[in-house]
Design a protein that fits this description.
Number of domains: 2
Number of helices: 17
CATH architecture of the largest domain: Up-down Bundle
Largest sheet: 2 strands, antiparallel
CATH topology of the largest domain: Growth Hormone, Chain: A
Order of helices and strands: EEHHHHHHHHHHHHEHHEHHH
Shape: globular
């Protein structure tokens, strides 16, 4: 990906510091906070709303809802590649973020129309907007710091905190609002759907706040993220907006067919693999070996996200229908609040894990990158083991599992995520062939996209196994037991071959 000149010029002295960091960082922090509030505020509602509104609450709608959910997440990541290219070559990062925010907000309010076709169009608009927004806002942080500035990593940590704080608060707020306005157990489907629509509206308001905050605050960035030379005319922005609108019906069609989407993404990833292998071979045996190590770990990443993203699909149906959420004084724990467990765990555990790795590093015992990948799979497997045990032995007379079992699953999944997802991003920057970091990062996100698509497919299979009843105790037990064994087996296999993969990485650990 091209890098604008503003990103390679020293930024020292350009900005006034606030709390030890350049002032624009805090503007970008809140912009991202509200965007993540919007995304995570609506994400947990998707499958539940589709079943409630378009299938009248019939559990047979769980399988198609899961497939749509998987395709939605997959396209969110896949379109980021196009959004990054548009920002690099045409729009600049500021205009890309603004245009993306406008699309996301428009898509969210489109979801309020109780029509399935309009709803799917709304999801398509959100996907296009996210592709323009998500890859480009973080890129501007790099321009705030001079090369070699020791605060750079801490600045990205501050930004990442905004992501997780928004992700933590959003389900709490939208989950409470949805329950307040009708999304409660045993309510009529129309009442439950109304509560969820109001939740979508709250997420839309969050996106508007993100849009306006960045619109009025972007002047603080100065030249950072401005359009490339010769692209300053607004006609270029209108051309990209028009192209984005043309993409909406294409995304709409892909949302309808998860199988074709998986094949398309797999073909794109295969092309990236072939290109990386060709370049790696041309750059000598060290780079060739590093590319091979990358490709192996990319496949591990596909498997991880296939099960990690059950959170918005099968685990969501488990929370809504098969979990005992009754608390003291008759209060019921809202379904959406389970989605806050992961972000809260990231906020609390990420510093602990970082400190632990630092201490191990001083003793030359820190796990290597492939070992961390293997541990990530094993921790995620333990989460499904807890659920399988609860479904097999702890179901009460009402056919419900205890609330702590699902919370523990989310906790273990998050520990697995911390061992794999951020490590993978760092790995790409270290192992990618020179001048192909952008392509390699695109391949990484394609692997995430394929995992997300497979997550929807797998959740649909589990739900369909329950027949007309949708997800049942028996079908969930079978599906999550299989999840445990696949993740555990893959995790131990990765640990077994980790020394070989590390050897291929030639000193990158």
């Amino acid at each position: 990906m091209a890098v604008p000149n503003d990103f390679v010029q020293p930024a020292s002295g350009r900005f006034r510091d606030v709390f030890g960091h350049p002032r624009p960082l805090w503007m970008l922090f809140l912009t991202e906070f509200w965007e993540r509030f919007c995304f995570y505020g609506m994400r947990w509602m998707l499958t539940l709303y589709i079943v409630t509104e378009f299938f009248g609450g019939d559990a047979q709608g769980q399988a198609p809802a899961s497939r749509i959910y998987g395709a939605f997440l997959a396209l969110i990541f896949a379109t980021a590649i196009l959004g990054g290219y548009a920002a690099d070559r045409i729009l600049g990062y500021q205009r890309s973020v603004l245009l993306g925010a406008a699309f996301i907000a428009a898509g969210l309010f489109t979801l309020l129309v109780p029509d399935q076709t309009v709803f799917m169009i709304g999801l398509s608009i959100i996907i296009i907007g996210n592709g323009l927004f998500k890859p480009n806002i973080a890129t501007m942080i790099g321009g705030l710091y001079a090369p070699g500035d020791a605060r750079r990593d801490r600045g990205f940590t501050v930004f990442y905190t905004g992501v997780n704080v928004g992700a933590f608060l959003a389900p709490l707020v939208t989950g409470y609002v949805a329950a307040k306005f009708g999304f409660v157990d045993f309510a009529e489907p129309s009442a439950r759907a109304q509560g969820l629509r109001i939740g979508f509206a709250v997420s839309g308001v969050g996106m508007l706040l993100s849009c306006f905050w960045f619109f009025f605050g972007r002047r603080e960035l100065g030249p950072i993220g401005r359009p490339p030379p010769g692209r300053e005319d607004r006609r270029h922005a209108l051309a990209v907006a028009g192209a984005a609108l043309v993409l909406v019906p294409i995304v709409y069609l892909l949302l309808q067919n998860n199988a074709w989407l998986i094949l398309l993404l797999a073909a794109l990833l295969a092309l990236c693999f072939l290109g990386l292998i060709r370049v790696g071979i041309g750059q000598g045996p060290v780079q060739r070996d590093r590319v091979v190590a990358l490709l192996v770990l990319f496949l591990v990443n596909v498997l991880f996200f296939m099960f990690f993203e059950q959170g918005g699909a099968s685990l969501n149906f488990l929370a809504d229908h098969l979990t005992d959420r009754k608390m003291s004084a008759g209060w019921e724990f809202p379904t959406g609040w389970f989605q806050s467990v992961g972000p809260l765990a990231v906020i609390l555990l990420a510093p602990v894990i970082a400190v632990a790795w630092g201490r191990l590093a001083r003793r030359n015992r820190e796990p290597s990158i492939p070992q961390k990948f293997g541990l990530g799979l094993i921790f995620t497997a333990l989460g499904f083991l807890v659920l399988a045990h609860a479904l097999g032995h702890l179901v009460n007379d009402q056919g419900l599992v205890p609330i702590w079992a699902l919370a523990a699953c989310y906790l273990f999944k998050t520990i697995g995520e911390l061992h794999l997802a951020p490590i993978g991003l760092s790995m790409v920057t270290q192992l990618a062939p020179p001048r192909m970091i952008g392509v390699t990062m695109g391949a990484w996100f394609l692997s995430v996209s394929i995992g997300d698509s497979l997550a929807g497919w797998f959740a649909a299979r589990i739900s369909a196994a329950g027949g007309k009843a949708g997800l049942t105790v028996a079908s969930a037990l079978g599906g999550f037991t299989l999840s445990f064994w696949l993740l555990l087996g893959a995790g131990f296999f990765v640990l077994l071959v980790a020394p070989l993969i590390s050897k291929l990485m030639h000193g990158v650990n």
